[in-house]
Design brief:
about 15% helix; alpha+beta; about 170 residues
Length: about 170
């Protein structure tokens, strides 16, 4: 039964979103005047070691609006090998930190799903696998649309991420 809840929620969202996504104005509005980035995280450093820890691998898509607002979605295997998702409709980018033109501070806020079963208490405010998340980060932009980012995951870990602008 527990495995059916995310599946049913996903099917409901897909069913409701399909008519909106079919409209041309919706699709063009997704990217118009926004920067799209593909995200990948190959490594997460945990502050404390736990034999139950697994490798964390993340892929995602992020949009940056002209005014610096961020939103996006990432799929990842969490620290305990469970498939997880983080959807963040809120966020921001602040450029030229400490006078460095390519350095920026970023933050995102949203809802994560994935820490369930025996690992449900590994994240705060977890209710049936869902919990709120706020992630601060430092990013450095390289040439050709590439950037490196360090995500601070509370008192648990640091995540190293790379991203590539795709539009």
């Amino acid at each position: 039964m527990k495995k059916l809840i995310p599946l049913v929620c996903g099917l409901i969202v897909a069913h409701l979103a399909a008519p909106a996504m079919a409209e041309e104005s919706f699709l063009s509005g997704l990217t118009q005047d926004k920067t799209l980035r593909f995200q990948f995280s190959p490594y997460t450093y945990h502050y404390t070691q736990d034999d139950a820890h697994s490798d964390v691998v993340l892929v995602g898509l992020e949009r940056e609006h002209k005014d610096g607002k961020l939103d996006g979605v990432v799929l990842f295997s969490n620290s305990f090998g469970q498939p997880s998702i983080y959807v963040y409709p809120w966020g921001g980018t602040y450029r030229e930190i400490m006078g460095v033109s390519k350095l920026s501070f970023k933050w995102t806020a949203g809802l994560m799903y994935g820490y369930t079963g025996q690992y449900k208490d590994k994240v705060p405010l977890n209710v049936v696998g869902f919990n709120p998340v706020v992630i601060p980060a430092l990013a450095y932009d390289f040439s050709s649309g590439w950037s490196a980012q360090l995500n601070l995951l509370g008192n648990a870990a640091m995540q190293f991420q790379i991203s590539k602008q795709i539009n």
